[in-house]
Amino acid sequence: FLIYSFSYSGDKEKGLYHGNGEATFAGGHEYKGAFADGCMHGKGKYKWADGVTYNEVFVAFNLFNKEKQQQ
Known about the structure:
mainly beta
């Protein structure tokens, strides 16, 4: 499924998030990293509003690795 963010800055292709970018979501969650065809896809960092951070490889929005960091 496609990402619906509150704000986005970065690369786009054919109107979709594609390449490197930064997205902020409702609730204050953030993602910085790779996108493909509108999905978090590739290496990136997802930070929940409570500070829990995942430095991960995402495959079509899903966590592929689970390297959790507590901040």
